[in-house]
Design brief:
With about 260 residues, this protein is of the alpha/beta class. Helices cover about 25% and strands about 25% of the residues. Helix 1 runs antiparallel to helix 2 and helix 2 packs across helix 5. The chain is globular. GO terms for molecular function: protein-L-isoaspartate (D-aspartate) O-methyltransferase activity.
C-alpha cells in the first residue's frame, strides 16, 4: 500500500544499491506555487524573448496549450550559466557542467507534450504524478511542475542536484520533489506514475521504470536504436501490456548508474 507521506522539497537521499530509499520530511512551503522572481540579467525583455520562443515552438508543431504556456512561463535563462544567458532562448542545448547539458526547448516541449498524450492523462483531463530521470539544472522539472500535479525528479550527480535545488528554490514549487539517487532504479516510493521521462539515453531501458509506470501511463525516453543512433521511444502501459513507439532521432547524454 502506497504511503501518503511524500518527500518534501528538496529531498536529499542516498541509499545502497538494491534498497528502497527512506522517505524524507514533509513538504516545505505554505503555497503550492508563488509568483516567479522578476527577470533580470539579460539586458532585454525576457518575457518578449520567451514569447518569441513559444511562437517558434508552435510553428514547429507543438500544439498543447498547457505545454506552450509552461514554456512561456519558465525563465530558461535562470537555469544556465551567466555567460550563456544570451543563448538561453535559442533552440539549442547548453552545457551545465560535469559533462551534462540543458536540453533544447523544442525537445523539452516535445517530451512534455508526449506525456500529456498518454491515455490516462487524456482520460483524467491532466497529468498526475510524474517521475523525471536526470534533474540536471532543474529546468525540465520546472516545466513539468506547470503541467503535472506532482513531480519527482532524481539526479545521480550531487553537484547538479545542489544546483537544481538552488535554481528551483525561488519558485517555491512545493509539489516538485528533488531526490539525490540512482535514477536507473526509479523511485518506487512515488509509484505508480502517470508519466516517466528520462533526460539520458541507454542501450536498454531499466525494467524498474516500466514496473513503476501506472496502467494508462506513458514513458518517454531516448534509447539507442539498432543502428547505434539515439531515438525517442514512447512506451504506453495498457491493461494488455506494453506498447512501444519509436519516434525521431535525438541526442542525449549517456544514462549511467550510481551516485557521484
Amino acid at each position: 500500500m502506497m504511503q501518503n507521506k511524500r518527500p518534501g522539497f528538496p529531498a536529499r537521499m542516498d541509499w545502497p544499491q538494491g534498497q528502497s530509499p527512506k522517505p524524507a520530511g514533509p513538504a516545505v512551503g505554505a503555497r503550492r506555487e508563488a509568483p516567479p522572481p522578476v527577470p533580470q540579467g539579460l539586458g532585454l525583455d525576457s518575457a518578449a524573448v520567451r514569447a518569441r520562443m513559444v511562437q517558434r515552438l508552435a510553428a514547429s508543431g507543438i500544439s498543447s496549450a498547457p505545454v506552450l504556456a509552461a514554456m512561456g512561463a519558465v525563465e530558461r535563462h535562470r537555469f544556465v550559466d551567466s555567460a550563456l544567458v544570451n543563448q538561453a532562448y535559442e533552440d539549442t542545448s547548453l552545457p551545465i557542467g560535469l559533462g551534462q547539458t540543458i536540453s533544447k526547448p523544442s525537445v523539452v516541449a516535445r517530451m512534455a507534450e508526449l506525456l500529456l498524450g498518454a491515455e490516462g492523462a487524456r482520460a483524467s483531463g491532466g497529468l498526475g504524478r510524474v517521475l523525471e530521470i536526470g534533474t540536471g539544472c532543474g529546468y525540465q522539472a520546472a516545466v513539468l511542475g506547470r503541467i503535472a500535479r506532482e513531480v519527482y525528479t532524481i539526479e545521480r550527480l550531487r553537484a547538479l542536484h545542489e544546483k537544481a535545488r538552488d535554481n528551483l528554490r525561488p519558485w517555491r514549487l512545493a509539489h516538485v520533489h528533488l531526490i539525490l539517487g540512482d535514477g536507473m532504479a526509479g523511485y518506487p516510493r512515488g509509484a505508480p506514475y502517470a508519466g516517466i521521462i528520462s533526460a539520458a539515453s541507454g542501450d536498454d531501458l531499466p525494467a524498474a521504470w516500466c514496473e513503476q509506470l501506472a496502467v494508462g501511463g506513458r514513458l518517454v525516453a531516448p534509447t539507442v536504436g539498432p543502428g547505434g543512433q539515439q531515438v525517442l521511444l514512447v512506451i504506453d502501459k495498457t491493461p494488455h501490456g506494453l506498447k512501444q513507439t519509436v519516434l525521431e532521432p535525438v541526442h542525449f547524454v549517456p544514462l549511467k548508474s550510481g551516485i557521484a
